[in-house]
Amino acid sequence: MMRPFKRLLSREEALAIISANVRRIERVERIPIEASAGRVLAEDISADLNVPPFSRAAMDGYAVRAEETYGAATYAPKRLRLIGRQNAGEWFEGEVGQGECLEVATGSPIPRGSDAVVPMEYTGLIGDIVEVRRPVHPGANISPEGEDIKMGETILRRGEILTPGKVGALAALGRDSILVYSKPNVAVIPTGSEVRPPGSPLGRGEVYDTNSYTLSALISAHGCVPKRLQVVPDEPEAIRAALRMGLDQDLVVFTGGSSVGTRDLLAEAVEEVGRVLFHGLQVKPGKPTLFGIVEDKPVFGMPGYPTSCLSNAYIFLIPALRILAGLPPYEPRRVRGRMAERVVASTGREQFLTVRVRDGLIYPAFKESGAITSIAQADGYTIIPINADVIEEGEEVTVTLFE
Amino acid sequence: MMRPFKRLLSREEALAIISANVRRIERVERIPIEASAGRVLAEDISADLNVPPFSRAAMDGYAVRAEETYGAATYAPKRLRLIGRQNAGEWFEGEVGQGECLEVATGSPIPRGSDAVVPMEYTGLIGDIVEVRRPVHPGANISPEGEDIKMGETILRRGEILTPGKVGALAALGRDSILVYSKPNVAVIPTGSEVRPPGSPLGRGEVYDTNSYTLSALISAHGCVPKRLQVVPDEPEAIRAALRMGLDQDLVVFTGGSSVGTRDLLAEAVEEVGRVLFHGLQVKPGKPTLFGIVEDKPVFGMPGYPTSCLSNAYIFLIPALRILAGLPPYEPRRVRGRMAERVVASTGREQFLTVRVRDGLIYPAFKESGAITSIAQADGYTIIPINADVIEEGEEVTVTLFE
Predict the structure, then answer these.
(1) Cβ-based contacts of B330 with chain A (< 8 Å)
(2) Judgement on whether residues B320 and B191 belong to the same structural domain of the protein
């Protein structure tokens, strides 16, 4: 039962296996644009109208026939008769005739007959006569119909992530709903006969479920929907049943199984109905991390210790979640700083050291891989290369921030 | 009516005024920890229990009396009688007596009588006799009760932002709900007699509301809840009524009012019942941005042009939203790259140039401040300093990403 790990894979090998075996889900749904920021567009969006939908004034001023302003100067103004005023949202039914002008506000339609706008500041008003003090050329201070977007033009494409600006563009095109890729559903299955959900009293020998909450928060932050299942005891039939139930979702993450025996239960359950693609990584903490495919769906087994689970989820689970959701690779923020104290590393495995960042100095937050304080207070992690023995005090390191 | 702007403020002056006049809201609410990631904690969290809640095995192996292993070696093993097996989640009622040991799994309680765990790999099992091949010291491979967190210790403090790791720490302490600061509600009020909501047909001279959607997406992304009000026509009484209605929320943002006249309507409405703290900025686009305080609540007037509105919201509105929500200052991601083409800047005003980033080259995305394509396709903006005339092709610039 206590089967040894097969060859331990490096982080890079594991990530390559994950990206080769996870694909975007193809389920789509129609949602209102109000709820679409951050979502992945599942249709091309082309314009059903010109933007602007009509030629409009780009300044407050007077709509004129440009040629009638030629030669205008401060001391030799051209005089035009004001035939009315048109605000944005109004539609002047008349026409600007010879020797005439119409007051327009920014955004208001350009009336028939006129072909330019003289800005307010280059004019004076005496009774119903407008004095134009500078000439304008045809088209001056006008945004012509379709200048920005021409009807039929494709503005956004399937697969794009909707930023606030793109949501605004959808609105500008008059779209109130769009097709997006559905958020993948992720089964989160805590295991361990000693594990109890928070909010209930602990019996002797029991501890609270931590990892399914950590993971669910991470899953929500990366475009997926966590579905937390009940805690599963360390028994073969229970693990098998939980796996079957988890496969109703798009991805399954088991967490817990801190003992070698429990980890093997999951590996065996996956092997029975699918394939284990790796089980065991050359990283610390996180050696027992498991990844497999069952019925085309990715299955992860995360380490049971909270710090191991969290750092392995940042490194291995997030990439899978984002591929599934159609999101671009995660680019976490990184900061550089100097180690505040000497850290002895374990050679032969790449080490993820959880750290705190204070005033540019980097302090190890890691107490032991079970430590809750470590995940509660860590700002991020730094990677100690596979063959490093030690990081000296004052050595510069890069910290990837937990966010 | 067409009142000129007073002195134009710099970006820094405007930001200083905003941060001096906006405070975190003090409303709190109790929520389940499942929904707490990203929220701001409104209570100190101290531990109601020790973590771990009992001394437990840190390895799979045998619980022993350490002194009985002294002198053990591969070819001179110490022999102990196996009195049973205890998994995680079980509680062994007996005691490990002299010459005895108990099999334990990682995470299982340390039975009475024993004071160390010999890892499985340093043992052999013959019938009910365990051969111990290495000595262990007292406490070896045990996580003692309270090692990580001692009952009564404060683990998280009011004002902290709940990361996935901190949510996990709450779970580990058995908390299923917590007090957080409520998300501020933000009234978003589109103005303009020509503005119609998307999803409805456009009449002549009308355009679709863009900015209230852009702003709502941004407001959601920065810890607040947008409450979009109906489009308000450019009329004094309508603006006044919308302001009154908006003041039911924690912050009010008007958008639109592209003409000078409309902008003045808002300034007048704010002055009647509160104070305008600035109206007019030395930035392009965005000159007309307005900020005031009414009944202790911040009121913004954003420019009407989509690109102006969006870039000014990134720069001036987000800081206010985050203060209100109790979030730390936004640190957007920045990238550096070389300008792909020469850009002529307008001197005398700081210019926010929306740009696209492609293969490390920076292209202006800005067509004109009304351009929807500009906000749809821009990846971010670069700031052209107030006295720069031009950015040369190949010059290196910093781009702040829209995200």
Answers:
(1) none
(2) yes
